[in-house]
Amino acid sequence: MARVTCAVASRKRRKRVLKLAKGFYGDRKNHIRLTKDAVMKALAYNYIHRKKKKSDFRKLWIIRINVAAKINGISYSKFMYGLKKAECLINRKVLANLALNDPKAFSDVAGMAKKALA
To answer: How many other β-carbons are positioned within 10 Å of the β-carbon of residue 73?
Structure first.
């Protein structure tokens, strides 16, 4: 009786892993044992960094708002508190965009926040 090797299935499985490792450097792209480890680690980092990207953007927005608020003579925390008191529902992404692209509109928003604090 012939030995069953599952050649088609195992080749398909290896090809799938090697395809995911396209662009990897050195032996990590064409030796199946090293490739498996490299692909698993890459997929894990991929998942983690998709989550981390959101906090990175939030940090960037806060930095931009902070600089623009300081230019308008108010600290970031007081600015955000003033907006909350004024019941202004503009999120950080939009505020950062205003600070970068339309400083006049941002200064109007900062004035509104100052007025709410007074």
So the answer is: 11
Find out whether 109 and 90 touch, Cβ atoms under 8 Å: yes
We find that the CATH architecture of domain 7-117 is Orthogonal Bundle (1.10)
The token pair that represents 1 in the structure block: 């009786």
Q: Is the pTM of this model over 0.85?
A: no
Burial of 106 (0-12, 13-18, 19+ CB in 10 A): buried
State mean pLDDT over 37-52: 97
Q: For residues 19 and 44, what is the distance between their CA atoms, to the nearest angstrom?
A: 17
Main-chain phi, psi angles of 83, to 5 degrees: -65, -40
Q: What pLDDT, on the 0 to 100 scale, is given for residue 80? A: 96
Average pLDDT, the chain: 95
Q: For residue 100, which of 42, 61, 48, 52 has the smallest C-alpha distance?
A: 61
The rounded distance, in Å, linking the Cα atoms of 101 and 83 is 20
